[in-house]
């Protein structure tokens, strides 16, 4: 690495002293680079520490933590460490359940990682017979921006409908990372008589795999430079759509569907967690940003959508934003600007007291130039 010696620094200063145009040009360049970098820098509550992980969960009813560790974790862990791109694994063994978290190298293709982990787990045939099939889930990094609280003295199902409309409008505006809390999804049951399984030579596992492939939609990644998310798969949720799922194509051209051998029943389930504002029921929509999202931009989009929703809602229904981090971020930025301007003003006063006006001006001009240059260097990641 090259070092700048004291003599080298003196030569640089001497050069700019003799060539004033070069010094002025450098000053303008630093100011311009800083002015260009400031709007492009993302505002966030804390610096992002994004670790790409995949979690493997295995349930084994009736097993102790020691049995889980010996029969599940120690079997899966060496196989998972052999997956390409894995940096390390960590595991937790509890009664009836094992959790294995796999961390991957930075910037690794997580869609490929999830597929590789699933393939590795499926190749393991030495797990205990009573253990459930391991569940592979890709963990998605999130950072809370705000909570949209929808409240009103009405039926919770009506609030859920309004929350769904809020989600759709947020998605149209570019906000895709949202989570509804305080309402449960309907419970869907598929009842298959044993005689139908025998008559059509099919197993419950084959039915479960076919249904799971149609009702699941997994994130496939984020689009760089935009607050958009790509999903793979489909979401077939209603009874008619589930009944139309094809289980098998016969040689004569006919197809065996879920509706041919089973009855699909959709029931509303009780909410596991309920929210209230006083005695009034409420539903919360959590809004998060991605690693490439800007908290202030996302907050502005949410506020615009909430304002549009308020104009169309029935009387008595309120939409409020709670736990908003953008206000704290804005306050911190305002304090930074206020302190910088105050400091610059004090420096100018002292310089004009002890130096002539021309010297004081050029010394003071170096302060914002140095700040703007530092911002440009931080934005470029140098």
Structure description:
The strands form 5 sheets. Strands 5, 6, 13, 14 and 15 form a 5-stranded antiparallel beta sheet that branches. β2 (86-94) and β3 (97-104) form a beta hairpin. This protein starts with 5 loop residues before the first helix and ends with a helix. The chain contains 12 helices and 15 strands. With 382 residues, it is an alpha+beta fold.
Gist of the model:
This protein is α+β, with helices and mostly antiparallel strands and 382 residues long. Helix content is 47%, strand content 23%.
What is the string of SSEs from the N terminus onward?
Answer: HHEHEEHEEHEEHHEEHEEHEEEHEHH
Overall pLDDT metric: 79
Q: pLDDT below 50 for ≥5 consecutive residues: which ranges? A: 217-236
Structural class: alpha+beta
Strand content: 15-25%
What is the chains' assembly state?
A: single chain
Number of strands: 15
Helix content: 40-55%
Gyration radius (Cα, Å) is: 30 Å
* Shape by Cα distribution: elongated
Keywords for this entry:
alpha+beta; 382 residues; five-stranded antiparallel β-sheet
Topology diagram in text:
Elements: H1 6-18, H2 20-40, E1 53-59, H3 65-81, E2 86-94, E3 97-104, H4 110-122, E4 135-139, E5 143-151, H5 156-172, E6 178-181, E7 187-191, H6 194-200, H7 204-215, E8 217-222, E9 229-233, H8 239-243, E10 246-249, E11 255-257, H9 258-261, E12 263-267, E13 275-277, E14 280-289, H10 295-310, E15 318-322, H11 326-354, H12 357-380
Antiparallel strand pairs: 1-3, 1-4, 2-3, 5-14, 5-15, 6-14, 7-12, 8-9, 10-11, 13-14
Helix pairs in contact: 2-12, 11-12
């Amino acid at each position: 690495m090259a070092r700048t010696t004291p003599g080298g620094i003196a030569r640089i200063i001497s050069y700019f002293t003799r060539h004033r145009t070069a010094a002025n040009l450098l000053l303008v360049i630093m100011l311009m680079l800083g002015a260009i970098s400031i709007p492009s820098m993302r505002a966030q509550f804390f610096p992002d520490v994004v670790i790409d992980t995949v979690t493997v969960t295995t349930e084994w009813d009736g097993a102790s933590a020691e049995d889980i560790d010996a029969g599940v974790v120690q079997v899966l862990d060496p196989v998972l460490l052999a997956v390409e791109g894995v940096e390390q694994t960590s595991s937790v063994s509890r009664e009836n359940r094992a959790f294995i978290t796999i961390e991957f190298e930075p910037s690794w293709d997580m869609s490929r990682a999830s597929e590789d982990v699933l393939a590795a787990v499926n190749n393991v045939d030495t797990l205990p017979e009573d253990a459930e099939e391991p569940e592979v889930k890709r963990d998605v990094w999130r950072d809370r921006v705000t909570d949209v609280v929808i409240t009103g003295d009405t039926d919770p199902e009506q609030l859920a409908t309004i929350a769904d409309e809020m989600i759709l409008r947020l998605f149209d505006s570019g906000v895709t990372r949202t989570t509804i809390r305080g309402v449960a999804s309907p419970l869907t049951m598929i009842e298959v008589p044993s005689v139908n399984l025998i008559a059509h030579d099919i197993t419950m596992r084959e039915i479960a795999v076919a249904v799971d492939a149609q009702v699941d939609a997994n994130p496939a990644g984020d689009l760089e430079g935009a607050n958009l998310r790509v999903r793979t798969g489909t979401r077939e949720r209603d009874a008619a759509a589930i009944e139309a799922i094809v289980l098998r194509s016969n040689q004569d051209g006919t197809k065996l569907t879920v509706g041919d051998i089973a009855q699909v029943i959709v029931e509303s389930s009780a909410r596991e967690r309920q929210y209230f504002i006083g005695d009034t029921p409420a539903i919360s929509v959590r809004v998060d940003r991605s690693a490439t999202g800007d908290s202030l931009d996302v907050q502005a989009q949410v506020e615009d959508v909430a304002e549009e929703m308020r104009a169309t809602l029935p009387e008595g229904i309120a939409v409020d934003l709670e736990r908003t981090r953008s206000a704290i971020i804005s306050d911190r930025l305002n304090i930074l600007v206020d302190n910088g301007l105050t400091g610059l003003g004090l420096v100018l006063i002292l310089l004009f007291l002890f130096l002539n006006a021309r010297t004081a001006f050029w010394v003071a001009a170096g302060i914002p130039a140095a700040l703007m240059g530092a911002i440009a260097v931080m934005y470029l990641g140098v």
